[in-house]
From TrEMBL:
PANTHER family associated with the record: VACUOLAR PROTEIN SORTING VPS16, VACUOLAR PROTEIN SORTING-ASSOCIATED PROTEIN 16 HOMOLOG
The gene coding this protein: VPS16
Organism of derivation: Aotus nancymaae
Function: Plays a role in vesicle-mediated protein trafficking to lysosomal compartments including the endocytic membrane transport and autophagic pathways. Believed to act as a core component of the putative HOPS and CORVET endosomal tethering complexes.
Protein name: Vacuolar protein sorting-associated protein 16 homolog
Domain Vps16 C-terminal: 519-830
Sample GO molecular function, one term: actin binding
Quaternary structure annotation from Swiss-Prot or TrEMBL: Core component of at least two putative endosomal tethering complexes, the homotypic fusion and vacuole protein sorting (HOPS) complex and the class C core vacuole/endosome tethering (CORVET) complex. Their common core is composed of the class C Vps proteins VPS11, VPS16, VPS18 and VPS33A, which in HOPS further associates with VPS39 and VPS41 and in CORVET with VPS8 and TGFBRAP1. Interacts with RAB5C. Interacts with STX17, MON1B. Associates with adapter protein complex 3 (AP-3) and clathrin:AP-3 complexes.
Length: 834
């Protein structure tokens, strides 16, 4: 353990920081990082390098090269930059690369260098050019902030829904600020900038001067500023060599540190984790890395190469030409177990397991010590938690073996946490592999935004379909959320491979997808059609028609012609829709039945409002009523809106002379209003329950009178109500109330169901109460259910029923029911003599 903590560095008395290698980088960089524009995505994301940018002196004929790598240095894309000069690079939350140009245009590229789209930051930015830019992340999405040549700021908080905001002017600002950053406070994006000794905060309405509390005197300028990953904390580096740390609102000071270096750092980022013992800031110069916090001493590292810092939720990634490392605060569970001379329960359990493997009696001594202190459960939990924070699989296994060893001596330790940790680590180790290059930590994977669904999306973006499918199958995710979704993405990617023939692509899709549930062949065909591969779209439609209509039968002659005809009609339809006004287009459709049918199918998936207009035009009240019922549940969340839509549906059904559908719709409206009233008066969840489930919920809540009133209001038959009440009371195991209910009046369902449901609940004592009340025709079955074979035999002999005698005889066992079996055989013999 002493050796294991060799790379631990104390920061003050309460926390340790460690730096370990993630990957040995194998990228072939021809230039230093300082000579490139660099952007690295958080959550173990990719790295983008724009080599030979315009800020470096180079021959005009040499074009810049944009390279994209995984976090392990595996190349993902490389392309010559043919657009204008780039000022800044950054990654969006969806792992799209944003390239901010000098003219204010932002070009968006995919992970594999495919151009997605572009947008402009406005005419003012175009006229004044871009001096600097920042890409930042908020709860709304990814934002871009621009500093123009006129020293004005423009930003958009979400590039997915572009809304440009021109920030207020800073009074007297004649030159670029010494440093600035984007802040997110109270769900609003702000700009914080430094001009000499002054700090200014810009919001959408005003520019205000702010002063950090407790700032050391003598500051004449701020050289660098850094906001934490969660935008809660801020660090300021001054020209006096002091680093001020406090809240991002600049209302509270956390600490201040004098690093005795006045030169401006290359980078400054926060390095902390949720519930951190010691919040810290990492500062990087050319060949020095310093970790500072609320402690008199700092941690210092020598940088052998030009390096780049990437802030993460629970630490900092540091990569250079040769290595990629992770610096973070040692988690509490790991510190308790591995620190020198630790007597924590987890440390003792780990030692006990190691001694057990050596077949040493010390294992028993360690284990007894933990048990005497009553800390064995805590020890197991510590080992499980610490395993999640370890990067090396060998140490993970060692800790999990210790946890498994400790579990053997606990009577009731829930296995969920151990099983889940094993599953999570297997997934994490798979994606951390050098060839995948996503160095996720357990904290980011389990506790924050990067859930398993987001991780699968990132694997799909990297076109790692086999690994994504293996993870889905290993975690047993539902097909629609897992394998089916990934196969659909794979098929859409497959149709874009223009170097593969249509026949081969269609065959591969058909073989791989087959009749996989949840896969939309229409989306795949649409993607193929959008790529200009009409024949491939036809073949995909044929595959869909075969899997849904023909099953495994061979393709009929003429099917291709049939699909081509309909695809041609559909193409003409879309052209006419764009060329004609709405009225003329609808009139044209009325005279073309096949075109009208195809357009209705299109509207069902793409344009629901247009579908409603078509039904109105044709006076198709039946379909119109069905449309409003679907709309009431798909689009309306408020109960009032849902009821209004259902009323419209009922009116349409009356016009269609479908009284049954109209009455059923009115009953549903009545039920919804009643469920809302029940929620207001009783609490709980009633909305969207069926009528039967509503009655059952009332009974389970002890509201029997309301349940009976509801049954009367909706004319639920007595037999059905008795079944509902019987099942609900049995689930509650309210045997006293069940007995009262059975005696309230004569049961319309008989008393055998009472016996059956008591036996189902493993209560034979209660079942015997009702066995005596069962009618003669079901008496034998009831007695057998309660285990009274002898009495069942007497009743069967009395009835002289051969089927009942055979049934009782099948329940007789040789050891205990021999006399009963003999009695039945004698009764059979006497019956045959007569």
């Amino acid at each position: 353990m002493d050796c294991y903590t060799a790379n631990w560095n104390p920061l003050g008395d309460s926390a340790f920081y460690r730096k370990y290698e993630l990957y040995s980088m194998d990228w072939d960089l021809k230039e230093e990082l300082r000579d490139c524009l660099v952007a690295a995505a958080p959550y173990g994301g990719p790295i983008a390098l724009l080599r030979n940018p315009w800020r470096k002196e180079k021959a005009a004929s040499v074009r810049p090269v944009l390279d994209i790598y995984s976090a392990s240095g595996m190349p993902l894309a490389s392309l010559l930059w043919k657009s204008g000069p780039v000022v800044s690079l950054g990654w969006s939350a969806e792992e799209e690369l944003l390239c901010v140009q000098e003219d204010g245009a932002v070009l968006v590229y995919g992970l594999h260098g495919d151009f997605r789209r572009h947008f402009s930051m406005g005419n003012e930015v175009l006229q004044n050019r871009v001096l600097d830019a920042r890409i930042f992340h908020t709860e709304f999405g990814s934002g871009v902030a621009i500093l123009t040549g006129a020293h004005r700021f423009t930003l958009s908080a979400n590039v997915g829904d572009l809304k440009l905001r021109r920030m207020p002017e800073v009074p007297g600002l004649q030159s670029a600020p010494s440093c600035w950053t984007a802040l997110c406070q109270d769900r609003v994006a702000h700009i914080l900038l430094a001009v000499g000794p002054d700090l200014y905060l810009l919001d959408h309405a005003a520019c205000s001067t702010v002063t950090p509390p407790g700032l050391a005197p003598g500051v004449s300028s701020f050289l660098q500023m850094a906001v934490s990953f969660t935008y809660r904390h801020l660090a300021l580096f001054t020209d006096t060599g002091y680093i001020w740390m406090g809240t991002a609102s600049l209302k509270e000071k956390l600490c201040e540190f004098n690093c005795n270096i006045r030169a401006a750092p290359k980078q400054m980022v926060w390095c902390s984790r949720p519930r951190s013992k010691e919040r810290a800031v990492v500062v990087a110069w050319e060949r020095r890395l310093m970790v500072v916090g609320d402690a008199p001493e700092s941690i210092q590292f020598v940088l052998d190469e030009d390096s780049y810092l990437v802030p993460e939720l629970d630490g900092v990634r540091i990569f250079s030409r040769s290595t990629h490392e992770f610096l973070h605060e040692v988690p509490a569970a790991s510190e308790e177990i591995f620190k020198i001379a630790s007597m924590a329960p987890g440390a003792l359990l780990l030692e006990a397991q190691k001694e057990y493997e050596k077949e040493s009696q010390k294992a028993d001594e360690y284990l007894r010590e933990i048990q005497e202190l009553g800390q064995l459960t805590q020890a197991v939990q510590q080992c499980i938690e610490a395993a999640g924070h370890e990067h090396q699989p060998d140490m993970q296994k060692s800790l999990l073996r210790a946890a498994s060893f400790g579990k053997c001596f606990l009577d009731r330790f829930p296995p969920d946490s151990f099983v889940r940790m094993c599953q999570d680590l297997r997934v994490l180790n798979a994606v951390r592999d050098y060839h995948i290059g996503i160095p996720l930590t357990y904290r980011k994977y389990r506790y924050k935004q990067l859930t398993i669904q987001v991780l699968l999306d990132r694997l799909v973006l990297r076109r790692l379909y086999p690994l994504a499918i293996q993870i889905c199958e290993y975690l047993r995710l539902p097909e629609v959320q897992g394998v089916s979704r990934i196969l659909a993405h794979w098929a859409c990617y497959k149709v874009q491979q223009k170097d593969v023939s249509d026949e081969d692509v269609a065959r591969a899709i058909n073989q791989k997808l087959g009749d996989t549930p949840g896969v939309s062949y229409s989306d795949i065909a649409a993607r193929a059609y959008g790529c200009g591969r009409t024949e491939l779209a036809i073949k995909v439609w044929v595959c869909w028609s075969m899997s849904h209509a023909q099953g495994s039968r061979p393709l009929r002659a003429g099917t291709l012609t049939w699909v081509r005809a309909r695809l041609g009609v559909f193409t003409v339809l879309l052209h006419l829709k764009n060329e004609l006004n709405r009225g003329d287009f609808f009139m044209t459709l009325r005279n073309q039945p096949m075109a009208l049918s195809l357009y209705r199918q299109f509207c069902k998936h793409q344009e629901l409002e247009t579908l409603k207009d078509l039904y109105n035009q044709d006076d198709n009240h039946q379909e119109l009523g069905s449309f409003h019922i679907r709309a009431s549940y798909a689009a309306e969340e408020r109960i009032e809106g849902r009821v209004a839509a259902l009323q419209t549906a009922a009116d349409a059904f009356y016009k269609a002379k479908n009284e049954f559908a109209a009455k059923a719709t009115e009953d549903q409206m009545r039920l919804l209003r009643l469920q809302r009233r029940l929620e207001d008066e009783l609490g709980g969840q009633f909305l969207d329950l069926s009528l039967h489930d509503t009655v059952t919920t009332l009974i389970l809540g002890g509201h029997n009178k309301r349940a009976e009133q509801l049954a009367r209001d909706f004319r639920i038959p007595d037999k059905r109500l008795w079944w509902l009440k019987l099942t609900a009371l049995a689930d509650l195991e309210d045997w006293e109330e069940l007995e009262k209910f059975s005696k309230s009046k004569k049961s319309p369902i008989g008393y055998l169901p009472f016996v059956e449901i008591c036996i189902k609940q493993h209560n034979k004592y209660e079942a015997k109460k009702y066995a005596s009340r069962v009618g003669p025709e079901q008496k034998v079955k009831a007695l057998l259910l309660v285990g009274d074979v002898a009495q069942a035999a007497d009743v069967a002999i009395e009835h002289r029923n051969e089927a009942e005698l055979s049934l009782v005889l099948s329940h007789c066992t040789g050891a205990t029911d021999g006399a009963t079996a003999d009695k039945i055989q004698r009764a059979r013999a006497q019956a045959q003599k007569k």
